[in-house]
């Protein structure tokens, strides 16, 4: 892709996100979401592969439908209350439509089917954008309207997302699809706590974006798209493979790594809100995700593949390791001891 075109699309992504995050009017928020959608489409389809074109088409159709529902929800609310302010969402019908629209935009179950297919059709860097930056504007809308939404509906969507994200990721062999179902599972944790503690949900999103960025960048550096390729990565990049194992375990939420912090705090907050059964269910369902994280970590650190592979082995890498990968990998593992300072800042 031409560097000038890439610069324009990247600037449009930043502009669309900024407009949505900083707006109080529904029309401005909708316009920012549309700018984001139109800017990411060329980045998804830049390889000109039929799978990439299919992914871009699916992404456009889903995002356009969700944006239409957001506009319809805001118009219904304005018609009944005379308010276009995002914080003044009081109509029950509008709240229901908005919850559905944001669930479609984020990929929450049962509106999650498009996300693994789109992520599978893109490169790892574009997949990183779809998993982190493109989810920030819809999550911001969810935070701004959290006091108006139905807590029971959000809890059901969250538990369903955690269950399906873990269950459907068990039999995957493509790393991009595994990370897609990982994203769906983590969105469930964010959705269930949004109404009770929006700041905690935001902290969860920040830490998820940090850890998953490290995973995506490491996989991109060692050029790994399948588990069979991952099994031979230890021979050419042992340091990156060890870092990948630690970041995957952090993504799974194992103590004493960084990813344990948001899960710990969310379970604590749900217990305070007298939602101990929901906290127990969502904690048990996260064990499904833990299984495929452990499988990925095992494949990343294995010294010899257990069966014959059909691709050429590379015994060294010609690409120097990016310093940003090292910084992200370190932050993905050691932030738990300084968690009181993080909570003070948030």
From TrEMBL:
Subcellular location: Mitochondrion inner membrane
EC number: 7.1.1.2
Membrane topology qualifier: Multi-pass membrane protein
Transmembrane intervals: 56-76, 96-115, 152-171, 178-197, 203-225, 237-258, 278-304, 325-345
Cellular component GO terms held in the UniProt record: mitochondrial inner membrane
Keywords for the protein's UniProt record, in alphabetical order: Electron transport, Membrane, Mitochondrion, Mitochondrion inner membrane, NAD, Respiratory chain, Translocase, Transmembrane, Transmembrane helix, Transport, Ubiquinone
Catalytic activity: a ubiquinone + NADH + 5 H(+)(in) = a ubiquinol + NAD(+) + 4 H(+)(out)
Single Gene Ontology MF annotation: NADH dehydrogenase (ubiquinone) activity
Alphabetized Pfam families for the sequence: NADH_dehy_S2_C, Proton_antipo_M
Function: Core subunit of the mitochondrial membrane respiratory chain NADH dehydrogenase (Complex I) which catalyzes electron transfer from NADH through the respiratory chain, using ubiquinone as an electron acceptor. Essential for the catalytic activity and assembly of complex I.
Entries under PANTHER family matching the protein: NADH-UBIQUINONE OXIDOREDUCTASE CHAIN 2
Family designation: Belongs to the complex I subunit 2 family.
Protein name, as recorded: NADH-ubiquinone oxidoreductase chain 2
Gene of this entry: ND2
């Amino acid at each position: 892709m031409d560097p000038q075109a890439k610069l324009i699309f990247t600037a449009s992504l930043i502009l669309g996100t900024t407009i949505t995050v900083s707006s109080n009017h529904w029309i401005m928020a909708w316009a920012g979401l549309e700018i984001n959608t139109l800017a990411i489409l060329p980045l998804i389809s830049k390889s000109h592969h039929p799978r990439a074109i299919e992914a871009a088409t699916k992404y456009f159709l889903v995002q356009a439908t969700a944006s239409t529902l957001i506009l319809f929800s805001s118009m219904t609310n304005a018609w009944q209350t005379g308010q276009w302010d995002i914080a003044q969402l009081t109509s029950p019908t509008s709240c229901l439509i908005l919850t559905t629209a944001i669930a479609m935009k984020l990929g929450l179950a049962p509106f999650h089917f498009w996300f693994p297919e789109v992520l599978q059709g893109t490169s790892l860097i574009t997949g990183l954008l779809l998993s982190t930056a493109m989810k920030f504007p819809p999550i911001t809308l969810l935070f701004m309207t959290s006091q108006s939404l139905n807590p029971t509906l959000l809890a059901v969507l969250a538990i369903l997302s955690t269950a399906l994200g873990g269950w459907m990721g068990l039999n995957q062999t493509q790393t991009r699809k595994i990370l897609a179902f990982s994203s769906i599972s983590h969105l469930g944790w964010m959705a269930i706590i949004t109404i009770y503690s929006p700041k905690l949900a935001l902290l969860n999103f920040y830490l998820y974006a940090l850890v998953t960025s490290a995973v995506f960048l490491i996989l991109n550096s060692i050029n790994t798209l399948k588990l069979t390729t991952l099994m031979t990565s230890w021979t050419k990049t042992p340091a990156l493979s060890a870092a990948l194992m630690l970041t995957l375990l952090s993504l799974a939420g194992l103590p004493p790594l960084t990813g344990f912090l948001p899960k710990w705090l969310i379970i604590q907050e749900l217990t305070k809100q007298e939602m101990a059964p929901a906290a127990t269910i969502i904690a048990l369902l996260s064990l499904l995700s833990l299984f495929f994280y452990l499988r990925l970590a095992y494949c990343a650190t294995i010294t010899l593949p257990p069966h014959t592979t059909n691709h050429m082995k590379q015994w060294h890498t010609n690409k120097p390791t990016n310093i940003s990968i090292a910084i992200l990998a370190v932050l993905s593992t050691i932030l738990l001891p300084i968690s009181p300072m993080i909570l003070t800042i948030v």
